[in-house]
Amino acid sequence: MKKRFFILTLIIFFTGCSVDPQNNDLLPDIPVNESINLELPQYINLQVPGGWAYTSGGIKGIIIYNVNGTEFKAFDRACPSNDCSTPMTFNGSTKLKCSCDDSEYSILDGSSQTNGNTFYAREYLTTRISSSTLRISNF
Fold this sequence. Notes:
The protein has one helix at residues 2-15; strands at residues 33-37, 52-55, 62-66, 72-76, 89-90, 95-97, 104-106, 123-128, 133-137. It has a single domain, classed as Rieske [2Fe-2S] iron-sulphur domain (Rieske Iron-sulfur Protein), CATH 2.102.10. By secondary structure, it is mainly beta. Strands 1-9-8-4-3-2 form a 6-stranded antiparallel beta sheet, with no helix packed on it. Strands 5-6-7 form a 3-stranded antiparallel beta sheet, with no helix packed on it. 10% of the residues lie in helices and 27% in strands. A hairpin with a 4-residue loop joins strand 8 (123-128) and strand 9.
């Protein structure tokens, strides 16, 4: 009987402790549906791996990052762990930074790079519509 109870407790513990990065923040849910023309001058850097650009939309704007030439990442610039009035910035390498508390987040998956911080940067879905159009949405 004790063995069954122990196994049941372990199952409940491990299935109930997963972290959902999409909902692990303090940010309000708002609809996002942006189309980006990669041929416009403000998005020209997105045509190469490692290129990035800011755009409007989301809560405090969105940063778009070209991972490898075919895969793109998009994150809201709102700090996920506090109500910071300043949008997050990107260091041009690997991290988003919130100036209010100096917390940092990975540009590749939104995970916190700051010890003790369990929040993720709010990531949006990116879909390549055509060779020159990228759609950013949260649905």
